[in-house]
Design brief:
The complex is a heterodimer of chains A (112) and B (113). Chain A contains no helices and 9 strands. Chain A has 112 residues and is mainly β. In chain A, strand 5 and strand 6 form a beta hairpin. Chain B has no helices and 11 strands. In chain B, the strands form 2 sheets. In chain B, strands 2, 4, 5, 6, 9, 10 and 11 form a 7-stranded mixed β-sheet that branches. Classes of the chains: A mainly beta (112), B mainly beta (113). At the A-B interface, strand 4 of A face strand 4, strand 5, strand 9 and strand 10 of B.
């Protein structure tokens, strides 16, 4: 499975866009990019995922570069409740399950 | 509301005792997973199951056991053979699609002294 590299921590002002980068230079053609977040002492929450096209949902946007070696998660208007650890994961899935490997993620702090 | 329920939220045990963590889902998902998280770390996969009465070892299965007798239930037993059992344990489920997202419970924090 491809590995990902994320900054250890980031800050963002409330109301501004938070742009969280992720490098996955060894990603292969069938691997999806997933983003999850984890608020302290809770289970991870699914945010978004994509293969090659940019994706948007009610929570965030996912921008994947054309060569697929990096991606950016965008939270368009960050709030204090977006303070969490954000995980970028690439995984091909296999058979009937999706075996995701979580790294240490990016700790995002949203401040007033 | 559909979801995954893990109980209890906090669990304390003495060293040398086996302990079973509960995970129940009403999402009608086929696949279920157990992860372990240590402070400041990512999640590591312990066991996963695609279907009733079938399960596979993940990356750190030693010292753990599971069963999958019902679709909605996937209990994890932390045995006395697990050398460092104190951790945050997370259960997840997904539909039977290799590219479907995982839905997580809110975890059980196990402390063994």
């Amino acid at each position: 499975d491809a590995k990902t590299t994320q900054p250890t921590s980031m800050d963002c002002a409330e109301g501004r866009a938070a742009n969280l980068p992720c490098n996955h230079s060894t990603i292969s053609g069938n691997e999806y990019v997933y983003w999850y977040r984890q608020i302290h002492s809770q289970g991870p929450q699914y945010i978004i995922h994509g293969l090659k096209n940019n994706e948007t949902n009610e929570m965030a946007s996912l921008i994947i570069t054309e060569d697929r070696k990096s991606s950016t998660l965008i939270l368009p208007h960050a709030t204090l409740r977006d303070t969490a650890v954000y995980y970028c994961i690439v995984s091909p899935g296999s058979g009937g399950y999706n075996k995701l490997i979580f790294g240490a993620g990016t700790r995002l702090a949203v401040h007033p | 509301d559909g979801g995954i329920t893990q109980s209890p939220k906090y669990l304390f045990r003495k060293e040398g005792q086996n302990v079973t963590l509960s995970c129940e889902q009403n999402l009608n998902h086929d696949a279920m997973y157990w992860y372990r998280q240590d402070p400041g770390q990512g999640l590591r996969l312990i066991y996963y199951s695609q279907i009733v009465n079938d399960f596979q070892k993940g990356d750190i299965a030693e010292g753990y056991s599971v069963s999958r007798e019902k679709k909605e239930s996937f209990p994890l037993t932390v045995t006395s053979a697990q050398k460092n059992p104190t951790a945050f344990y997370l259960c997840a489920s997904s539909i039977k699609d290799p590219n479907s997202p995982l839905h997580f419970g809110n975890g059980t924090r196990l402390t063994v002294t």
